[in-house]
Specification:
The protein is mainly α and about 300 residues long. It has a domain at about 1-30. About 80% of the residues lie in helices and about 0% in strands. The chain is built from 8 helices and no strands. The longest helix is centred in the middle third of the chain and has 100 residues, at about 75-175. The two termini are about 150 Å apart.
């Protein structure tokens, strides 16, 4: 940032110098064209009567009042003009020095202003960074606080659910173990002893002996059912054993049948081989012993030699 500001100041200084040079050149040209010494009212005095108008009237007719220059008048004019030129140069130098001093002061003032602006920018940046850090810290603290509140609320909801579940479980257990559900004989006997009618919503008129008989009957039925179940299992086991035995016998029978078929195939093969050998031997006997005198072509050509 400091380098960028320095470059900007240099560019501004160069542009201002160019503008000043252009203004000086334009002012000098204006002086040279529009403010010449020959065009002034006293050009006849400053320029050696070069700009004075000519008088065609003789001096004798005009008189002494018309005279402009007298002999012996203004003897130190050259020295005075030199002093005036030196004073003019000193004034110009003083003006130039004052102008340069004023430019330097302006430049120094601008540099100070830019430094002050830069310092203000830095202070504003630090302040903004501090505000951002404060906001960030506030957001982080708020996030932590919200997270803590969320965790606390979640724990509170969990505890509420657990308490509700415990209460519901306790209510269910109390309902299941109450006299209304168990139909206890004690509650009915107690009410009967107190002279009150038995509560039909808590007891249905069965005594402990009756309940015991029902339980014994149920146990007997369970024993009978288990006996029938065991008998069924034995019957299934015997049937499965018989099926396994029959399957084994069927496999053995199939094995014997396959062995018989194999032996039959071997026997047929041997018989066919024996027949083949006998046929081959008979053919060789015919070829070598019986059909030894084979007829020639002459034997066949003697038949059907004449027409009928």
């Amino acid at each position: 940032m400091r380098l960028e500001h320095d470059e900007a100041l240099l560019r501004q200084d160069i542009e201002e110098r160019k503008v000043r040079e252009a203004l000086h050149a334009a002012l000098a040209q204006y002086w040279r064209i529009q403010q010449c010494a020959e065009d002034s009212h006293d050009a006849d005095l400053k320029c050696g009567l070069r700009g004075a108008f000519e008088i065609n009237v003789p001096e004798a007719e005009l008189g002494p009042a018309s005279m402009q220059i007298f002999q012996g008048e203004d003897i130190g004019v050259a020295q005075r003009r030199r002093e005036q030129m030196k004073q003019t140069e000193r004034n110009l130098l003083a003006q130039i020095v004052q102008k340069e001093r004023r430019c330097m002061e302006n430049k120094h003032r601008e540099i100070l202003q830019e430094k002050e602006l830069l310092q203000q920018d830095l202070l504003w940046r630090h302040k903004l960074d501090a505000e951002q850090e404060d906001k960030k810290a506030v957001r982080v603290a708020l996030d932590h606080y919200n997270q803590a509140l969320a965790v606390e609320q979640a724990e509170r909801l969990k505890e509420s659910h657990r308490r509700e579940e415990r209460e519901n479980l306790a209510e269910k257990w109390n309902t299941l173990t109450s006299a209304m559900m168990t139909e206890g004989w004690d509650a009915a006997v107690k009410q009967l002893q107190e002279g009150k009618p038995a509560a039909t919503d808590r007891w249905r008129g069965m005594s402990p002996d009756q309940l015991s008989a029902i339980h014994k009957e149920r146990e007997a039925q369970c024993v009978e059912r288990q006996r029938w179940h065991d008998l069924e299992k034995k019957r299934d086991a015997a049937w499965n054993s018989r099926l396994v035995e029959e399957s084994r016998e069927a496999q053995q029978e199939e094995k014997r049948t396959s062995e018989l078929r194999r032996a039959k195939r071997i026997q047929d093969h041997q018989f066919n081989m024996q027949l083949a050998k006998e046929q081959q031997a008979h053919q060789e006997y015919l070829d070598k012993e019986v059909y030894t005198n084979k007829p020639t072509q002459d034997f066949f050509s003697q038949f059907n030699t004449t027409s009928r």
